[in-house]
Design brief:
This protein is of the alpha+beta class. The protein folds into 2 domains: 1-88, no CATH class; 90-134. It is built from 4 helices and 4 strands, in the order ββββαααα.
Length: 134
């Protein structure tokens, strides 16, 4: 088993960008834990030569992984014979692009929610003190 040379968490801890010591020198990979298991899904980050480049491209690779290997509970993972007729229709290039953009926007919104919570402790205390003064 190869050893990891350097790694860093990305996407608010959802995944890891890393490189190996021996065989794959200069190649960076994205890895995330499969939900409910102790297994990882791993994908090569194309054209990444540094850790910073790999971190920038991690979101795109994560989206590709979701499309290639969906979660076992998602509609996309249901076998085609069981899926409804509307889900079996082939998506056009424009529809796939719109779907990809909406997923990226949703991920960005979730990251902003984590970074900027709606109510901070300071804000809550200030509001409470204002109420007490009134």
């Amino acid at each position: 088993m190869p050893r990891i040379k350097e790694k860093e968490r990305v996407l608010n801890g959802r995944g890891i960008v890393f490189t190996y010591e021996d065989d794959n020198i200069g190649k960076y990979f994205y890895r995330e834990l499969k939900e409910g298991t102790k297994l990882y899904r791993t994908k090569l980050i194309e054209d990444a030569t540094t850790l910073e480049e790999a971190k920038e491209k991690a979101l795109d690779v994560a989206m590709e992984m979701r499309e290639d290997d969906p979660h076992y509970l998602s509609q996309e993972a249901i076998p085609k014979e069981k899926a409804s007729a509307s889900s079996t229709q082939a998506l056009t290039l424009v529809q796939r692009e719109e779907k990809s953009i909406s997923r990226k926007e949703r991920l960005a919104r979730e990251e902003r929610k984590i970074e900027q919570p709606k109510m901070t402790v300071e804000k809550a205390l200030d509001n409470w003190l204002k109420g007490q003064r009134k």
